[in-house]
Write a structure and sequence with these properties.
146 residues; mainly beta; OB fold (Dihydrolipoamide Acetyltransferase, E2P); 5-stranded mixed barrel; globular; Single-stranded DNA-binding protein; DNA repair; DNA damage; NA-bd_OB-fold; Primosome_PriB/ssb
C-alpha cells in the first residue's frame, strides 16, 4: 500500500505550535494549493489543506514559517473522526508532513532569530530538515508518535 502526498502552496496563516501532554511538539497550519486547471470564467480554484507536523520539524516550522510563505510538503493523508460540542460526529482529513521545504525567503532575507539558512547562501531552498545552525536533523520512522 502507498499513502504519499506532495503539495506546493502558501500558508494561509501562521503555524500554531502546541505540545501534547507528554511534551511532544505538534504544529498545524493551512496550505493554499492552486488547482491545475481554470474554470469557464478563467479562474483557478484553490484547495485549503490542513497540515500537521510533529517533534523537531514542528518546532522548526513554527519558528521559521509565517503566513504567505511558499513551501513544499511531503507526507501522508490521515483521516480522523471527532465529536463536536453538540454531539455530532465529524470526519477530517489532514496531511501529516514528514518533510517541509522552504521555497522562498522571508522579506528581510533572514530566518527568525537572525539565523541564515544553509550557511548564509542567498537564494535557493532551505529544508526544514536543518536546525537553526544549519545542522542536518535526522527524523526517522522511530521518531513519529504514531
Amino acid at each position: 500500500m502507498l499513502n504519499r502526498v506532495i503539495l506546493i502552496g502558501r500558508l494561509t496563516r501562521d503555524p500554531e505550535l502546541r505540545y501534547t501532554a507528554s511534551g511532544v511538539a505538534v504544529t498545524t497550519f493551512t496550505l493554499a494549493v492552486d488547482r491545475n486547471y481554470v474554470n469557464q470564467q478563467g479562474e483557478r480554484g484553490t484547495d485549503f489543506i490542513r497540515i500537521t507536523t510533529w517533534r523537531k520539524l514542528a518546532e522548526t516550522c513554527a519558528n521559521h514559517l509565517n503566513k504567505g510563505r511558499l513551501v513544499a510538503i511531503e507526507g501522508r493523508l490521515q483521516t480522523r473522526t471527532y465529536e463536536t460540542a453538540e454531539g455530532q460526529k465529524r470526519q477530517a482529513t489532514d496531511v501529516v508532513a514528514d518533510d517541509v521545504r522552504f521555497l522562498d525567503w522571508p522579506k528581510d532575507g533572514r530566518l527568525s532569530g537572525g539565523a541564515t539558512p544553509a550557511g548564509g547562501i542567498g537564494g535557493g531552498d532551505f529544508s526544514a530538515d536543518f536546525d537553526d545552525m544549519g545542522t542536518e536533523i535526522d527524523i526517522g520512522e522511530d521518531d513519529l508518535p504514531f
